[in-house]
Design goal:
Number of helices: 10
Radius of gyration: 26 Å
Largest sheet: none
Order of helices and strands: HHHHHHHHHH
Distance between the termini: 95 Å
Length: 282
């Protein structure tokens, strides 16, 4: 039987991602069977498919192969297009639909009365990120026969300079998390938004940092299965994903809420000045 991993793995990833997208939408109360084949939504199926293709190329032909290079470039272009051009096209479609709905049908003649452009074309950055993670995970699972060297590498106990590198990285996370809290509080003493952001960053850095330092200590003591390199790598990977999630969810919402807080503060300031002037006149 002919088995081409470059075709089978992306197709299987596409099917799993589409079903996951439909299930997530159904859990939110939006039961729409278009999610089983249409684009848009959480997670990004485009990202999942191209990332699974890149992972397949990595396992089958290696990191130095031309196919892996092409797959990585293709994945980067598709993901950039998902939250760039295609997302902009969806926003334009939403604006055009609003204009069509606001037209006076008695004065403007439309050849297609039921014209409605599809608005869900692209993705939010978080949807692209989750899709990429899904593609990497599924691509690795579907190529499990190539994972034996990786598993053997993860089961080795790190020694010497590698342990010091892990300890340094985790200690830096702990100190950086504490430092950013004091810096943000000093710079934005009255901002509720920045306090929440500082709390989220502190939780992520302290959890990742202290768990990592505990794992490094266990690895130094050669604590049986807990001394595997894979635990430190896993904690680092979770910390990176956690940090990326905070960054992606905050890069738009934080500036907007800060602007609202500044506007509210200016209004309160003018109201206080107005009340003082009225009091002085009285």
């Amino acid at each position: 039987m002919v088995y081409n991993a470059y075709i089978v793995v992306p197709l299987a990833t596409w099917a799993v991602a589409q079903v996951a997208k439909f299930a997530l939408a159904a859990m939110r109360g939006n039961i729409d069977f278009k999610y089983l084949y249409a684009s848009g939504g959480m997670p990004s199926v485009h990202s999942a498919v191209v990332c699974s293709l890149a992972v397949t190329a990595f396992f089958v032909d290696g990191i130095n192969s031309p196919i892996f290079g092409l797959a990585v470039i293709l994945a980067a272009i598709v993901m950039y297009d998902s939250f760039g051009v295609r997302r902009a096209s969806g926003e334009q479609a939403a604006a055009i639909n609003m204009l069509i709905e606001s037209l006076d049908r008695g004065k403007v003649r439309i050849q297609q009365p039921q014209l409605h452009l599809r608005e869900v074309l692209g993705h939010q950055p978080v949807e692209v990120t989750v899709g990429a993670i899904v593609g990497i995970v599924l691509g690795s699972l579907f190529n499990y026969t190539h994972l034996t060297p990786l598993f053997n590498w993860l089961k080795i106990t790190p020694t010497g300079i590698e342990l010091w590198i892990y300890a340094g990285v985790f200690a830096f996370l702990v100190l950086a998390g504490l430092a950013q809290r004091f810096i943000l509080r000093a710079k934005y003493p009255k901002s509720v938004t920045m306090k929440k952001l500082a709390r989220r960053i502190l939780t992520a850095t302290q959890t990742t940092g202290w768990l990592g330092l505990l794992v490094v200590l266990l690895q130094y003591e050669r604590a049986s299965y807990l001394s595997w390199r894979g635990w430190a790598v896993l904690i680092l990977a979770v910390g990176l994903i956690w940090g990326a999630g905070i960054l992606i969810s905050s890069y738009k919402t934080v500036p907007e809420t800060l602007a609202k807080e500044a506007t509210t503060a200016r209004k309160l300031k003018w109201l206080k000045l107005g009340s003082k002037r009225k009091g002085s006149r009285a």
